[in-house]
Amino acid sequence: MPFTPAHVAAVLPLARTRLPLAALVVGSMAPDLPYYLPLPVGASVTHFPLGLPVVVLLGAVVWACWTYALRAPLAALAGREAGPPPAPGPRGVAWGAAALAVGALTHMVWDAFTHPGGAGVQLLPVLQEPVVEPHKVYNVLMYASSALGLAAVAWWTARRVEGPLRPRWIPLAAIAACALAGAAVSRLAAGDALDGGYDLVRVVLLGAVPGAGAGVAAWSLYWWVRERGGTP
Fold this sequence. Notes:
The chain has 232 residues and is an all-alpha fold. Helices cover 63% and strands 2% of the residues. It contains 9 helices and 2 strands; from the N terminus they run H-H-H-H-H-H-E-E-H-H-H. It has helices at 21-29, 33-36, 43-46, 52-77, 90-112, 119-123, 137-159, 169-190, 197-227, and strands at 130-132, 135-136. A two-stranded antiparallel ribbon has the order 1-2. The radius of gyration is 19 Å and the shape is globular. The mean pLDDT is 92.
């Protein structure tokens, strides 16, 4: 699979539309949630068009958490103030659901050409041609698209940062430590079952992302309780 945050690049061209950008971003990554969280549905459901309602529902939960619990604490990590969250309303919810669906569809299309069982891989036999064993063309496409996607997201973000940032290094270091701890636990849990460098990278990432998420959740709780003196 392409590294999950790289999927955000696919929705950036829609940033100036009426679709909420945060919901687009969440939707573009939501199909990968079963990789990182113990959910009652698997990735085979969330990467298939018939599973789109499930993805939208999962994404809606994440979008709400971002809007009302995580946005302000994460802005504070950069020394910024997020401002008040938007007031919920029927029209906003409808546009948000549409954005989640659009984002999820971009993810499914992307993965269709980079997953071994993807529809695009099955449709285009050239994607199954070997490059350097055990890697095939779709593997190379996955690596390249992940790198390009991450670069595009970094470039887009950097262009929109106004004024100097004042990072809070101690909580950032703590979140990084949580990511490293998650990666280490995932690697140890895999034992000797890894088959080459690809499996190693995949296992490390599947541990690092939940680890970082736990760190972000802990920081957000601290920020609301100790720094704001209240709850979201």
